[in-house]
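Let us practice reading a record.
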Amino acid sequence: MKMLLISGLLLTVLSGTVYGQQYGSIGLFAESDRSAWCVKGTGFYPVEMWIMCLPGMNGQICAEFGVRYPSNVIESTITPNDALISVVIGSLNGGISVCYVECQYDWHWNYHQTLWVADGTRTSCEIVANMKTGAYQFANCLDGCPIEPAIKYQNLYINYDSTEPECNKSFLGERSWGAIKEMFD
């Protein structure tokens, strides 16, 4: 029975890994190295937000998405990754389509934005569908640049402590295979 449970868990982990590699991800981060996605301050305070993408196994040449800002967050300075982006249609808060100078195969940032938090209400900024097209998706680097789904990777949590569940990595992402087996012993 234990072996059956372990086999099922392994299959779940591996299928998630394969899916994560097949399609790309897009997320919001508080640090350019993707180490934080939760921020907490007092009073009226600034927050840095990085919009970052991880291409799928066929690379990425374009991204289409939007950003939903909560009512206690004021949008401020937006810095596009000019070295990477060649075409922009739309805006972050209404829906945007961006294409790159060349195909991307690793994590990259599209935009860096300074936000101002007006109060201590717990909220989040999140990746949403482009309001004009109803999708968040990528164009990959195969012939004809076919469209594929994008996976929402991470929200930016406002007024959250780093110890809260939303701010920690998933339990499988931080454990070795040995530690997972020990859960069933």
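A brief commentary: Residues 1-20, 170-185 have pLDDT under 50 and may be disordered.
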